[in-house]
Design brief:
4-stranded antiparallel beta sheet, 5-stranded antiparallel beta sheet, 224 residues, alpha+beta, 5 helices
Length: 224
């Protein structure tokens, strides 16, 4: 009788022990814990990578252009200084912003533009004087109630051969000048000069708001 009781007790204890083992070594629980640990490790790794990322500063351009645009009613007066060689040609473009573009969108550079105002309306580009100043020129502002983007560009490959040689002597190969930007993507059907190569150079811009808005008239704006 005692022997039966002992056997019964051992069986009960064995069941309890096995039940406890199932709880402790439940594979599903282990999988969940492993997934959580892996997720936590990945999050830590992502944070570490973000902290280690070093943002590259934009390359300084090989040449400096410090230009301003003075708004006076329908007149826009461009002036400034540069270390580009004398007689270097600088092009300008005036692009109207779409009518529904807000000031916030313009400041955030997310606003769309329409086709540029024809050169025979706004005026053609300018050039560099012997003393390094940008030849002062007045351009026409077609509509005082329209917002515009004024662009001043310098294209090394578009200069006269003599100017190109001076640029090379000052700063090296024209297609490797520091700080070059793509002014126009490759378009083989639209250009007999550049073929299927993108047009590169330097560009500075300034936003022109409506004349009745703040800084829309009677002010001098810096191109950036």
């Amino acid at each position: 009788m005692c022997r039966n009781r002992i056997v019964f007790v051992l069986l009960v204890l064995s069941c309890l022990f096995l039940s406890a083992c199932r709880v402790v070594f439940d594979p599903f629980a282990q999988n969940t814990e492993q997934k959580e640990a892996q997720k936590e490790n990945r999050q830590k790794a992502d944070v570490q990578e973000q902290e280690e990322v070093v943002q590259e500063e934009p390359e300084e351009p090989a040449f400096n252009i410090d230009a301003t645009l003075t708004l006076d009613g329908e007149n826009m007066v461009l002036s400034g200084e540069t270390d580009l060689p004398p007689d270097t040609i600088l092009e300008i473009k005036l692009k109207p912003y779409k009518g529904n573009a807000t000031v916030e969108e313009i400041e955030e550079e997310t606003a769309g533009t329409l086709n540029e105002v024809p050169a025979n309306t706004v005026g053609i580009g300018t050039s560099v004087e012997e003393d390094g100043s940008i030849r002062e020129k007045t351009y026409f502002r077609p509509d005082l109630s329209t917002r515009y983007r004024f662009e001043l560009t310098f294209e090394p490959e578009g200069q006269e051969e003599e100017i190109k040689q001076q640029l090379i002597e000052q700063a090296g190969a024209l297609d490797e000048l520091a700080g070059l930007q793509v002014l126009k993507e490759a378009d083989p059907d639209a250009s007999m000069v550049h073929g299927d190569d993108p047009v590169k150079g330097y560009i500075q811009t300034v936003n022109i708001v409506k004349a009745d808005e703040e800084n829309g008239d009677g002010v001098t704006l810096e191109l950036e």
